[in-house]
Amino acid sequence: MTTILPRKDVVIVGLGWTGSILAHELTDEGLDVVAIERGPWRDTATDFNIGYVQDELRYAIRKDLFLQPVTEAMTMRNNTSQTALPMRDYGSFLLGNGVGGAGVHWNGHTWRFWDTDFQIADHLTRRYGAEKFAELQLQNWGVTGAELENAYDRFEYLCGISGKAGNVNGEIREGGNPFEDPRARDYPLPPMQMTYAPTLFAEAARALGYHPFPTPAANMSEDYINPLGIAMGQCTMCGFCERFGCANYSKSSAQTTVLPVLMKKKNFELRTHSEVLHVDLDASRTHARGVTYVDTSGEEFFQPADMVLLCAYGLHNVRLMMLSGIGEAYDPNTGEGTVGRNYCYQTNSGAQVFFDDKNFNPFVAAGALGQTMDDFNGDAFDHGGLDFVGGAGINCIPTNGRPIQTRPTPPGTPRWGKDWKQATVDSYKSTLSFSAQGSSYPTRGNYLDLDPTYKDRFGRPLLRVTFDFPDNDIRMASWVAGKMEGIAKELGGRQYTVSPRKKGWDSVPYQSTHNTGGATMGTDPRTSAVNKYLQSWDVPNVFVVGASAFAHNAGKNPTGTVGALAYHAADAIRQQYLRNPGQSLVSA
Amino acid sequence: MRTIALSLSLAVSALVSSSVLAQAPDDDAKIIRGRYQAVLADCAACHTKPGGASLAGGAPLQTPFGELVPPNITPDEETGIGSWTAADFRRAMKEGIGHDGKRLYPAMPYPAYTKMSDQDIDALWSYIRTVEPVHNPVEANQLPFPFNIRLVMLGWNMVNFEPGDFRPDPNRSEEWNRGAYIVQAAGHCGTCHSPKSLLGADKGDEALQGASLQGWYAPNITGNSYLGIGSWSEDEIVAYLKTGQNAHSIASGPMREAVQESTSRMNDADLKAIAVYLKSTEGGETQKPQPIAAEDPHMRAGAMIYHDTCSACHRADGTGGRQLFPALAGSPLVQQPSAETLTHVVLNGSQGAATPEARTTPAMPSFAWRLDDQQVADVLTYIRNSWGNAAPPVTADDVKAQR
User: Fold this and answer.
1) B188 appears as a binding residue in the annotation
2) Using CB atoms within 10 A of its CB, is residue B212 exposed (0-12), middle (13-18) or buried (19+)?
3) Is B43 annotated as a binding residue?
4) A384-400 pLDDT, tens digit each
5) CB proximity list for A335: less than 8 A, separation 6 or greater
6) Which of B109, B142, B160 is the last residue of a domain?
7) What is d(CA A218, CA B174) in angstroms, rounded to the nearest whole number?
8) A377, A180 Cβ separation under 8 angstroms
9) Tell me, what DSSP letter sits at residue A59?
10) Could you tell me which of B311, B317, B312, B301 has the C-alpha nearest to residue B375?
11) How high is the ipTM of this complex?
12) Annotated binding residue at B135?
């Protein structure tokens, strides 16, 4: 028995970053909006209470804020010759749950992708010829960097990003990232006060002729009031960002930047603890009637709406499209179909330098407080003589000194016992870590679909992730690791390790919650699930917003681009779609 | 919508006849003035339930004598005040007598409203007549014997109640007199902020010097520069009343509602007048005591708790953070003779007022689960005696009484 609810103008699935931004924009437009969120309500004072929020066991180890497999699991395999099995615990990536979504527990690295990302196929073809990336399924996004500049700008000002511009309207600025695309103005806040390890890293990088700069951070370097009139407080550098909510209103999230205004709007309503089962289409399969969801009592509701916005985490967006029959599922054998196509991840490598005479006080930290260099990222360097495309940002961002998980030890240290204890004591304060965050490029065989065997508690097939690191990306990681080794030597510690990403994705150890693609944006409905405005090619009153739209993943954290795409989609809806509701904004 | 309806009626009446022309604009203007009187008097604070229909009856008020439920004052004939006349209404406001002769309890602040001018009361009446009538029976009197006998109020009024108009002070400016009129009459600030006698009446000679109510302490709001708001500039007082916060403080608790429903909707000239008047008033201890020594064991314990638990937001030096974390250093609220508000906030948490200019509504979490009575007492003693603050210590028993 399904209860049919009164119609709304817009139903939003998931109230994280993109859902909050779109809800704010569309309620400003005067639309009647309801957001349906699977998880609980969360707010700063009650849920990120300063008295207990810094509980590493509860939040980092037991993953209190995250989606649990009992709610929704996924299956994984490395390639189509294997049989996928369910992940019994999330490990490699940790998905958000509840209001604010993954925007609650992120570190706050806030990047802009480059124009050479958005037009990657054209750009690489022009520079190297198409043969250079023939093994990859690289494709343009359908937008340019210039088109998204204003959307990035608005997201950065919403968040209060601390950083230093490197290129303002074409003028290169000392101390910023010289490789970034032109931006209209500087970041809203100056960079954070730098800690010791990134300072040393930057000195070493500069000595080698590289161009380090302060990582753009969604951790407040100063008190800030955003354009919505919402105040945030200066970060205390407590070192509890990733996996934690922020107790101090110092990390940008839906809670600290949008919800105080959104929740008071009369034309907005939020329903928590309500899981959307599918989008309901009409008989023509080209128009969404609304969504069906179930609350915690098991009661099912149909929420009719003129527009449906899928704003869940990217992986969930893709699964909801498949469960609802929106678009055609991707088939890796034929290369046909678009939903599930171009699933990408992140190709990360690590390095540690062990010193005898340094004290880095690692507990003085923030999620994005550090230094980055983009000299070997994207196509900032010539790949002419190299056997790969793509690259990595090299980051020295010591995010924390938390006692359970931050236990660096030099190679050769036993894994337990007296010697291990002594080594953790010796190395805790005196180890400098840095990493390479590498691009992840699509291949024909990496994709998402519905698992043929395993089902969730509602009997719906689980999402199946078929992924391994492409050979191109492994070669990239290995080459970048060579550059990391150069920096490690320049830093001059007692000893160092460099660990480049190896083949064989393992879903157990944590790697990155940067899952992208599966509902990619693009110019061609045969290779993309949504158009350049994130509008479904197949069901035009459905927009699918999030990292699911990425046609590939760059060597950068995705959230900045996710936020920008939310504004980009909101603009398209407000300025174009509402004039002709139900129509495609781009003709196929 | 009401504004549109009013201007339409203006336009129509202009076309009809000169006698209507003379009549209608006057009525419309009067209703608008009356609506503003309802803002000044904050009728909704008591007579509108959270989420309920406007003025159709409020949430129960806990008084020291028992529970009272603010009645339905919409123009509903049966359950509201639809059968009242203007004279009935004036009598209720000025004398505390309802239209059937029932004596009102002074939870309805007629001891303040009595000072309102007949003109303002009539305007308010005109406005209330336009509110949507709502059928909602409310039994106001939930008091225990003997307080449930309304005639008791006859005696109370003889002792405690002085009916009569506001008397302007000819030696003061027009602005000062306007401020005094709002504070003493419609604004009824003293209802919360003036100490009460055992009988629940304002102690006239201690007006606005601070009082306990419903687990909070409404602080001294006289011009006293130690305990009152004398150290705030007029602009800072205006900012507080208009936005719910200023550089020194953020409104929470009952004042949060007063700001949201009433003071934030007042016009700037009236807010300025209130500031001018309040700053001219006097009352309470003006000499700071010696602060408790930092070496005192309770101060030392409090300092440790403060730096562990409070300093991330309120900062190590108690200066707080803009629009988010109220400053504790130099705060009159922190140094009141009673620490009831502070205790309430530490035990239960609280959330700041939401106004168009201050939209963050930051919240303080509850620490009742984490700090025991002695720890709450120590940390409060510490903040009341640090960074130039000085105030009596807080004891574990004080905290226990509020937990």
Assistant:
1) no
2) middle
3) yes
4) 999 999 999 999 999 99
5) A444
6) B160
7) 51
8) no
9) I
10) B301
11) 0.89
12) no
Q: What is the CATH number of the domain that holds B337?
A: 1.10.760.10
From the list B312, B359, B362, the residue facing A50 with the nearest CB is B312
Q: Which of B19-28, B280-289, B328-337 has the lowest mean pLDDT?
A: B19-28
DSSP conformational letter for A194:
P
Cross-chain Cβ contact A231/B360 below 8 Å: yes
Query: B226-262 in b/e burial notation, b at 16+ Cβ within 10 A?
Result: bbbbbebeeebbbbbbbbbbbebbbbbbbbbbbbbbb
Chosen CATH of A2-579 out of 3.90.1600.10, 3.40.50.2300, 3.40.50.1820, 3.50.50.60 = 3.50.50.60
Whether B235 is covered by a domain: the verdict is no
- Shortest Cα distance from B307 to chain A (angstroms)? 12
Tell me if B309 and A46 make a contact (CB, 8 A cut-off). Answer: no
Which residues of chain B make contact with A249, given a CB cutoff of 8 A?
A: 324, 360, 362
Tokens of residue B187, six digits: 């604004």
Sign for the pseudo-dihedral over CA of B100, B105, B106, B109: negative
Quick check: A64 pLDDT over 90? yes
CA A423 to chain centre: 34
Is B53 domain-assigned? yes
Rounded to the nearest angstrom, the minimum Cα separation between A247 and chain B is 9
H-helix or E-strand containing A567? helix A559-575
A160 contact residues in B (CB cutoff 8 A): none
A514 part of the active site: yes
With an 8 Å Cβ cutoff, the interface of chain A facing chain B consists of: 43-46, 49-52, 223, 225, 228-234, 236, 238, 247-249, 260-261, 264
Domain assignments of chain A as residue spans, ordered by start: 2-579
What is the distance in angstroms between the Cα of A324 and the nearest Cα belonging to chain B?
Answer: 37
Rounded Cα distance between B187 and B120, Å, is: 12
Q: Which of A105, A383, A514, A568 is catalytic?
A: A514
Least confident of B21-25, B153-157, B348-352: B21-25
Which is it for strands A268-271 and A33-36: parallel, antiparallel or unpaired?
parallel
Per DSSP, the three-state class of A551 is: coil
Domain that holds residue B91: 2-160
Chain-centroid distance of CA A465 in Å reads 17
Q: Which three-class secondary structure string do you get for A440-478? A: ECCCCCCEEEEEEEEECCCCCEEEEEECCCCHHHHHHHH
Q: Which of A382-391, B150-159, B320-329 has the lowest mean pLDDT?
A: B150-159
In sequence order, what are the residues at sequence separation of 6 or more whose Cβ sits closer than 8 angstroms to the Cβ of residue B252? B345, B350, B351, B352, B353, B364
Among candidate residues B139, B160, B181, the one where a domain is terminated = B160
Length of chain B: 403
Residue B316: inside a domain: yes
Inside any domain, residue B219: no
pLDDT tens across A556-574, in order? 999 999 999 999 999 999 9
Give pLDDT tens digits for A12-25.
Answer: 999 999 999 999 99
What is the arithmetic mean of pLDDT over B181-191? 96
- DSSP states of B337-370 as a string? S--HHHHHHHHH-EE---BTTB----EEPP-TTT
The Cα-based distances of A136 to A75, A119, A124, A315, A351 in angstroms read: 24, 15, 12, 21, 28
pLDDT for the residue numbered B100: 80
C-beta of residue A267 within 8 angstroms of C-beta of residue A32? yes
Pick from B313, B361, B363: CB nearest A233: B313
B163-185 residues labelled b (16+ CB within 10 A) or e (exposed): eeebeeeeeeeebbbbbbbbbbb
User: What domain count does chain B have?
Assistant: 2
Q: Which of B312, B349, B357 sits opposite A45 (nearest CB)?
A: B349
How many angstroms separate the Cα of B281 from the Cα of each of B111, B114, B225, B248, B278? 20, 21, 11, 20, 5
Mean per-residue pLDDT of chain A:
97
H or E, element range at B149: none
pTM, two decimals, is 0.93
